[in-house]
Amino acid sequence: MPAQTVLQKLEILADAAKYDASCASSGTAKRNSLGGKGIGSTEGMGICHAYAPDGRCISLLKILLTNHCVFDCHYCVNRKSSNVVRARFTPQEVVDLTLAFYRRNYIEGLFLSSGIVKNSSYTMEQLVEVARILRDEHDFRGYIHLKTIPEADPEIVHQAGLYADRISINVELPTDSGLTRLAPDKNGRQIEGAMGKVRNDIVELKDACKRFRHAPRFAPAGQSTQMIVGADAATDADIVGKASSLYTAFNLRRVYYSAFSPIPDASAVLPLKRPPLIREHRLYQSDWLMRFYGYKPTDVMEATEADGNLPLDIDPKLAWALKFRDQFPVDVNRGTKEQLLRVPGLGVKAVGNILTSRRHRALRLDDIARLTVSIVKIRPFICTVDWRPVTLTDRADLRSLLAPKAEQLELFGV
Questions:
Q1: Is residue 385 left, alpha or beta, with left meaning phi > 0 and alpha meaning psi from -120 to 50?
Q2: Where would I find the beta strands (DSSP E) of 65-160?
Q3: Residue 81 and residue 199 in one domain
Q4: How many Cα atoms within 13 Å fall on the side-chain side of residue 312?
Q5: Going by C-beta distance under 8 Å and a sequence separation of 6 or more, which residues neighbour residue 298?
Q6: At a CB cut-off of 8 Å and minimum separation 6, what does 261 contact?
Q7: Which alpha helices (DSSP H) does 251-364 contain, by range?
């Protein structure tokens, strides 16, 4: 077989990396190359984080070091039994690509993951070497996200955190039974043990930075993880419960969700078709409710339907409100911030505006309409000086009235 060019490797390994959703670059430390020192930046003019319609960050060079792998995870296109074209970068090739793309203003940093070659520690050393060359030899100050390997030597993972802005360890699946069935080479306790070690390192070095001026920073953008949705029988209630426990136990910056996608030569234990992408979206919405709206995991679980999954036709916040109509309507002139955040259609910014505005005068329905995008979804759940929903909140067909209307797309529409 003829030797592959760098361009051919890039085509293979960039495509292989598309299944990893956890590449957002928010929350990192501020660094720049002003004054002619170093290369790259994580801030300043011209730096923007572009996202694709499915929510994935597209401002980073996102590749695998290699798609060779000694593991045989059923859901992974790069598993050892998969019949795919293989490729492998050297650390220096990844460094050269990163710098070349950055100088052309195509990217703001690097997201690097890898299949497992030889063993976990060897592969982790190769990933760390890329970050070391960028930081130490080229004074690269852009963003670096390294996907770490839980089975690797903890000291090597620690080195990754000293060079990278963010590190992540995928839990892969929300249940131990699903992990045992679909990823027999992985161990849930080992994955969580590695995440706990990273959490402790972040806390220790953050404290050291407060006490010592030149203490090294460790993963200043924190750690994240990813779960695959729809590859096993786990319900949305299972996934939400797992995500909540991960946030609590490991101080994660984000939990990412990736809808299972059918792969070539798929194992017989996998579903024949992918779950609806809207299911992934609903999980992100539920994640947002827990992180910014004060919802508890049990609240989100109560919004699920009989099968344990969130409804696809309406968002989780509306689903919860329809199940607990006794909590409504909320008086916008007297309700607490927590009560207002539970009103479907009211976001964090709108609630803040309401709390500020009502200090000066009693709010009317028209005032609320000016503070929000659409008043239609909100009216059944609030009362104002001049509006009270009366029986509207209790209507049996309220869900159908508020659910987004399905539209038939035109093949030749203008």
A1: alpha
A2: 109-113, 143-147
A3: yes
A4: 8
A5: none
A6: 19, 274
A7: 277-292, 297-302, 316-323, 337-341, 348-357
Question: Could you report the per-residue pLDDT of 371-398, keeping only the tens digit for each?
Answer: 888 899 999 999 999 999 988 888 999 9
Check residue 5 and report its DSSP letter.
P
- Type of residue at 383: C
Closest by CA to 92, choosing from 138, 54, 58, is 138
Rg over alpha carbons for the chain, rounded to the nearest Å, is: 24
Separation of alpha carbons 22 and 14, rounded Å: 15
Rounded (to 5) percent helix, strand, coil in the chain: 40, 10, 50
| Residue whose pair of structure tokens reads 């798609």 in the numeric block | 67
Task: Answer left, alpha or beta for residue 175, where phi above 0 means left and psi between -120 and 50 means alpha.
Answer: beta
Burial class (CB in 10 A: 0-12, 13-18, 19+), 21: buried
| Domain total of the chain | 2
Indicate the residue type of 63. Answer: I
| Pair of tokens at residue 395 | 């209507």
Residues 245-284 pLDDT 10s:
999 999 999 999 988 887 766 677 787 788 898 999 999 9
Q: Are 71 and 186 in contact (CB under 8 A)?
A: yes
- What distance in Å separates the CA atoms of residue 21 and residue 374, rounded to the nearest whole number? 31
pTM above 0.70, yes or no: yes
Domain that includes residue 28, residue range: 6-225
* AA letter at 322: L
Spatial separation of the C-alpha atoms in residues 305 and 64, rounded to whole Å: 38
As a whole number of angstroms, the distance between CA 288 and CA 180 comes to 29
Domain boundary among 225, 260, 289: 225
